[in-house]
Design a protein that fits this description.
This protein is α/β, with parallel strands linked by helices. Helices cover about 40% and strands about 20% of the residues. Helix 5 crosses helix 14 and helix 19 (about 450-460) crosses helix 21.
Length: about 525
């Protein structure tokens, strides 16, 4: 890197070394444009009981006992699988849902919880985007939208209200709920197993969200939703291990020889760089020291989640499945609904190996619509992964080097340039042994890409009648929204130990929670 470029990188707070490393990767691979790659036809896989497991209902997991025992003994030599289920004459152990959840509680102390916390709420509250989401829905929720918008403007998305109370007031934030769920999960695991259990939280921030997140956590320590649980457990969940995602430079449009360079004329000005985030997939680079420290401290699994999903609390069932199978990581997918428009879908390569491709980035939306019209079920990414820390630490360099870079052409006020991003969930394509767990959307995937979606999912019963009167063709959308609202109520009561009091969701008092365990 020459001196003039280093000075430019420093001027715009850009990680020059990382930018040039990514640029070299792009040029070495001569990546196809995303729209070209997305034009290929894809296969949409279904549940097979081996690589794609049905995680709903009364699940039974059948696995060779020797394999299961070997995988569990790498984590904890004191766990006796034979006491949880009978070993069949063929040497196979059949684990019921109850047995799997018991095992998952025993394994809970080996889990940490990671949040990709770099995003702000800009798109979330964008009026144009929300207005185009099932019009005329926006006109029916404008009062709630106007109430929440000021609380979201300029804020990290995780610090914004995760729902609206029935009385119309804003609820607790996504991150307050996340922290409460981790404390509750630790207490439940300790009650069930007699073992101490703390589930630490860690995060990747950005330059935009870093300071406000850390400031909020100092206030959360005394929040009514957390304080009693922190004092009881002796574990301060608000002490969050943090690494900040660096910004990278924008690149030039694709040149005739397929190569690119650093974009140096932003806004038509010479020597003006454009600083951009490199996508959530950069976490494998940014958080590598945290992953190593967690492994050395005795943790063996880490959740990695998007913050805007109320449903992705730690699941003993999924922890047990991940541990028993010895997979590199497990990933939650739910069958795609009319609400699921932004995100990734599960696809299979010709050799039947699996990957996740973002709609509109790595797979054409038209292909998705065509498959849906043909009645083909599509598994939609819940942005919840449970990773083996052994895999993340031993395969670190391979992941960082090989995770795909998605390059998109941009034409904005800053000029015509290219943006490179890594998508976290495309790591599935790099794994020898990924496991996909199919879940019920209303139980695990109450995501909120748009504020209007969040309002609809938590207050559908007050909205659908008027919406259907104007647009009866929205029946499927309204049916899904009612189901999600029902799931929201269940999750608030059961997962977060909240109770409705005078039209507001409030935390169940600690004494009552403990007596109900």
């Amino acid at each position: 890197m020459n001196k003039p470029m280093k000075e430019l990188y420093d001027r715009y707070a850009i990680d020059g070394n990382l930018s040039e490393k990514i640029l070299q990767q792009i040029n070495d691979r001569a990546l196809e444009d995303d729209h070209q790659e997305g034009s290929a036809r894809h296969e949409f896989p279904v549940i097979d009981g081996r690589h794609i497991i049905d995680g709903t209902g009364e699940i039974t997991l059948s696995i060779p006992y020797d394999t299961a025992e070997e995988n569990i003994s790498r984590i904890d030599t004191h766990i006796d699988l034979s006491s949880m289920s009978t070993i069949g004459p063929d040497g196979t152990i059949d684990m019921s849902r109850a047995a799997l959840e018991q095992l998952g509680l025993l394994l809970m102390p080996y889990v940490a919880y990671g949040v990709l916390n770099g995003g702000s709420a800009t798109s979330y509250i964008d009026t144009k985007k929300n207005s185009s989401f099932y019009p005329p829905l926006f006109s029916l929720i404008e009062k709630e939208f106007d109430l929440l918008t000021p609380l979201c403007t300029g804020r990290a998305k995780g610090l914004t209200p995760a729902y609206i109370n029935p009385d119309g007031t804003p609820g607790y934030s996504f991150l307050e709920l996340k922290m409460r769920s981790l404390l509750l999960s630790g207490i439940r695991a300790r009650k069930a197993t007699g073992r101490d259990c703390t589930i630490p939280m860690f995060q990747m921030t950005s330059g935009y969200t870093h300071d406000q997140l850390l400031q909020a956590y100092t206030e959360y320590r005394h929040a009514p939703i957390l304080k009693e649980l922190i004092d009881h457990s002796g574990f301060d969940i608000t002490e969050v291990a943090t690494a900040m995602q660096p910004l990278i430079a924008a690149f030039t449009p694709r040149q005739p020889d397929g190569r690119r360079g650093i974009f140096t004329h932003a806004y038509g000005e010479p020597d003006h760089l454009l600083a951009l985030p490199g996508g959530h997939g950069q976490n494998f680079y940014v958080l590598q020291d945290i992953y190593r420290d967690l492994y050395e401290s005795g943790k063996r699994f880490v959740y990695l989640i998007n913050v805007d999903n109320i449903g992705n609390t730690p699941s003993p069932l999924h922890i047990a499945i991940t541990a028993l199978t010895g997979c590199d990581g497990s990933f939650e997918f739910a069958y795609k609904t009319p609400i699921d428009t932004k995100g990734g879908v599960l696809v299979a390569h010709e050799d039947a190996s699996l990957t996740c491709k973002d709609i509109g980035v790595a797979i054409d939306p038209g292909e998705i619509s065509e498959a849906e019209d043909q009645g083909i079920p599509i598994l939609f990414n819940c942005a919840t992964g449970l990773f083996s820390l052994s895999y993340l630490t031993t395969e670190r360099d391979h992941i960082i080097e090989q995770l795909p870079l998605r390059v998109s052409e941009q034409n904005k006020d800053a000029g015509i340039y290219a943006q490179a991003e890594q998508v976290t969930w495309e790591i599935i394509d790099l794994m020898d042994h990924p496991t996909i767990i199919a879940v019920n959307k209303e139980e695990r995937f109450l995501a909120a890409k748009l504020l209007s979606e969040s309002i609809m999912s938590t207050q559908a019963s007050h909205i659908v009648e008027d919406l259907l009167e104007q647009h009866p063709e929205y029946q499927d959308f309204c049916d899904v929204s009612r189901t999600l609202e029902s799931g929201f109520y269940r999750i608030m009561r059961e997962d977060y130990a909240m109770v409705l009091q005078d039209g507001r969701w409030e935390p169940v008092p600690l004494e009552r929670f403990l007596s109900d365990l």
